[in-house]
Each structure stands twice: as C-alpha cells, then as structure tokens.
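Possible race condition, two jobs.
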Amino acid sequence: MEKEPTSYDNEAGQGESFVREPVEAYGRKKLSIAEFLEWESAQTERHEYYQGEIFVMMGPKLPHARITGNMSFELMSRLKGGGCQVFSTDLRLHIPSNTLFTYPDISVVCGEPETLNNDDWNLLNPCMLIEVLSPSTRTYDRGIKFGLYKDIPSLREYVLIDSEKIKAETWLRHEDHWDQQVFEDPDGVLDVRSLGLSIPLRDIYTGTKLL
C-alpha cells in the first residue's frame, strides 16, 4: 500500500502552482450554505464552497475535457442497465459533514441518488468519484480534496486521471485504509475495482496528443 496523499502534497520538484483566492459575494467574505446556494444559482461560472468561503472553479482545457468525455462514455457504456448512473461535471456534490460543495469531473451512483433536501441538485451519495488532474489542481485533488472526499460514507473508490501524461491511479476504500493502484502502460487497462470494470487506457486518452 502506498502512502496516502496529504494536504499540500505537491509532488515536489514539478513546479506546480495552485492559487485559491476566495471570492467575495454580497460584499462579505463568508456566506452561509443557504446564502451560497442562492448566490450560486445566479452565476454563470461554477464555484466551490467550503466553510463559508467561495472559490471559482476554472473551466477545463481541451485535453481535460476530452479525457472526461471519454471516461464518461466508457463508464456509461459498461454500466448501462446495471443499476449504476454516471453524472458529469455539471452535477454538484455536497458533503454535509465538512460543508464542501463542489463539481467533480465524474460521479457514479449505484442505487437511488440522494440529494440535499431532495432538491435533485446537490448529490450526497456517490460510490465513486473521478477527477482529471490539471497542473493548477493536481495538488488540491490529490491532497486536501481527497481528504474532504473521505468524509463521504458511500464513497468506495477515488480515481485520478492525469491530463498531461498517461497515468491514472485509483484509491479503494477498506475498513481501515485506502489502497492505491497506479496504471501507466498505454497498452494496459485501468481497473475500477469497486465496479469490477477494466477500461483500456487508450480509450480513456483517445483524441489527446499523448498517444
């Protein structure tokens, strides 16, 4: 088992930058959840909320968007009719225990989706989450955000897919630890253990310049 990523784990030496400056809304630095939801409903950009602060979520670059689309298609094709649903980045996720509202690149729910106050908008019970790593979000997605995702009781697996090189990693939840697997062979497969799926990495990276 590999070491779990920790907060601000930035894979030293790669020169990555991640700047998270909170957005001021209503002229205030912090909002309640109700205030955030009202404010967010009127915005054209997507925002992340955590403990009263709001952060802009930047739009993805082309490789990121292609990988997300490819992975969504592969999952939908394999899970169709099996009781699991795949949701894209437009569906917001909420974690009541730590207040986070965010938009994962891909969410998978097996069974009936549960939402905040049955609002059909803020998902509560994903069994798997996928983030496509970009230079500006790599540290956050592998560290702080993973730590927040661990507070989701229903979450069984977290998948990270690199947008700059052929590499994917999965973190599978056990009772007392998370077990990591890394996949880097272009002719190999990504094993999604919680769903019993194997997806060729070439299919995930189709349309990128990495193949």
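Job #2 (started ~2 s after job #1):
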Amino acid sequence: MDSKIALIVIGSRALCLVLLLAHTPKANADWPRFLGSDIDSTSKQAPTEVWTEQPSTVWTLEVGDGYGIGSVRGDRYYHFDSVSDSGQLRERLRCTSMDDASIQWSVSDKIDYRDMFGYEDGPRSSPTIVTDQAGRDLIVTMGVSGLLTVRNLNDGSVVWQIPTSSQYGVVQNFFGVACSPLHLVDETLGDMVVVMVGGSPPEDQNFPPMALDRVSDTGTALVAFALRDGRELWKTGNDLASYSSPRTAELDGRTSIITLARGSLWIVDAATGNVLADQDFRAEKLESVNAMVPLVRGDQIFVSECYEIGSTLFQFKAGKLETLWRDPERDRRRQSMRCHWATPVRVGNYLYGGSGRNAADSDFRCVEWSTGRVLWVDERRTRASVTLAGDKLLVLNERGLLQIVEPTPERFSVVAEFDLSASGDGLPGLRFPLWSAPVVVGPKVIVRGDRKVACFQWE
C-alpha cells in the first residue's frame, strides 16, 4: 500500500469507505476504518501465540440498530448506530474506552429512514478516523439515510453536515446507504472527503419503491467534498450507489479510486474525478447487491458478487480494464467465489473468504488468485467474514462461531474455535447476525453481534 494512503469504512449488508491520502497511520496501532489501515482486513500483529486458549471478555457494549462495526484510535473505540427517542429515529456516535467501554462522549442526529425489506434502521457503515493537513483529528460518518457528517474527534462536535440523499436526489435503494466517507489529500485541492452517492434527476423522484430499474443517474456515483467546509469539489460516474466502499490504489503511476458501484466497476483519478476506466459488473436480478470491497494486487483488481456473475480478476493496463479470468455466469457450481456482503482476505497468491448468497448455499473456501481455481471448500452452510491476524485467519460465521484457521491452500485447517453465541464462562452471548469482520488492535479483538459489541483478549 502506498505510504500516502489511509482509509476506513463499514458495513454489513452494505459497505462504503472514507479515503485518506497522506498522514500514514501507525502500523497495527489503530483500526481507523472499515477493513483496517491497509483496506485488506489485516493486522500484522497477532493477538496471541497460544490460540487454543479461550479468550477472556474484556468488555461488552450494548448497541442499537445497524450492522457496521466501529473503529479504533489509540485507547478509544467509536461506535455508530441508531436508537429511537420518543418515536424519533436518531443516528448516534459514541466514543468509548478501550479498557472498559465506558462512554466518553455521545452525540446524535435526527434521521428519517425506513428499510424496505424490514432490516434494521441503523448505519451499515463504520466511522472513518482521519488527521487532516492542519493536524485536526476528525471522525467522518455516512448514515443509512445519506447524512454525511464530519466531527471533531475529541468531543463529537459537528464541523459540517450534508444530507446527500436529499441534496442529490437519491432514490432510496433496497437496503439504505452503506458507504463510509473516503478522505483524500490532493496537492491542489487539499483535504477532501469522497463518498458514493448515486443521485437521480427530479423526474425520477416519484417512481414507486423497488423500481430501481426505472431510475436514471446524474453522474454522481462518486462526489468529493472539501473536508474543511463541505464544498463540492468534483462529481463523477454515471451510476447509482452500491453497498460497497471506494478504495485507493496506485495504478499507472497515479493514485486512483476504485469503486464497485451498483452497475459497474469504476477507476477514477483521485485528484480530478476523471474516469480512467469502467466495466459493467452487475447481475440482471433487480435486487442484486454489489457489496464487497475490490481487492488489489499491483495492477490487478478482484471483484465478486453472489447472484449471477461470481468473480472476475481484472488487470488495469494502459488505461483499460482487461479480464484475466472470469467465472461462468449463472453457473454457481462452477464459480470460484460468490461474495455477498463480506470481503475475502488475500494471503500471497490465495484468497480466503465466504462464498454464497444465503446460508443454504454458503461455504468458506480457498481460491487461487491468479487462476480462480478452487483449492478447497469447507461446506459450513452459513455465511462468514474473515480477518487476517498475524499468520492466522479469524473466520467468524454469522451465528457466532469464531474459528482460528491456518491460511494454507492445502486444506481447511482449524487451530481452535470458540462459540461466541454462548453465555457464561467468559463468553458474551452474541446473537445473530454477526456480519462484520472482526477488528484486531494489538492484543484485542472486537466482534459485533445483533445488540452487543464484545472485546476479547487472550491472556
């Protein structure tokens, strides 16, 4: 990863990010965004060397609606959720101690949102923690209704807010806004925040719910705002928003933003918003979801979905996206990996991750990056997310089973497993769904269940 890049994001059913160029974060000291500092769900430091011992619960934190896990800076954990106050839905951001989850500050905003499919009316993203060029410590959130907020990290006070959905005419999608803001520093424009918006023109606002096939775009798949005051700097991309998160990579000698939006994979110049390349990537099914964050290895980009297309490995070369390998469409038995809401982990030339749309057709598997060849499958029949901690995979299935797994292409090799849904004997009783990948900060691991976040530590 380029030393000028730092990011964060969130997510459950949807994912989106905040991107930061400049101010390299301390390695392994924080987890400042979705998927961690290097956008790869990886901590180079293992929490323990003795994985077979059961971890102890350091603290638990009761949480409200939402699916995203929080972010960490130093000795503070920041959690984004929603609560109902006398019938009024409010999105809430809390700063808590990493020692005991005691509340340091709590702020909230009124929002108006109702999920079309009955999912929780809370954030699908994680906060992004940044330090700007002026040395200010800030935290950026993107709520389920599209409220983009920049706050001071020390007390939660608002720097600025933009209701992106109303300002850009976003027609509500099936599962709400899931993008976490992306903070980026340009030599000319300075600090900016980039988010996936996907607005539509006024004439589309009266279409009935669920009619996204009739909704058009306004070239606002991505919008960049000045971090200082929220001024729009650029907008780009003829697409609607997905549940993924933008990320950065060095491609053809320039910093680029890579975004898997609703209909296409986009490569955008980070400084100007100019589109460098785009490639159609969406199942024909109306309710289909693009949610995983693209993985990057040099000039190669891996993307995946679970409805029809499966996975594809692209190469960005001479300003074009070329296909290195592609799964056969609508043939799930022959597809290498079908990522739903979880992003896999790459270790060397191998991918490890959950594959499948629903529990009945889901498994955890190892796939060769360069060829798409499936090397092994653990047919667990439940969805799972994954984080790499040191040299071990932390595989968390949605029912609460945490498995410590050796990342080897030879076989599925479990070192230890712990049922986090159990109560008593030091276990917190986390409830379905556990959809966010574990956060690893030093010796501590943070996991989110339905109404509770738990922090673990191996003694």
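The chain is about 0% helix and 45% strand.
Logs attached separately.
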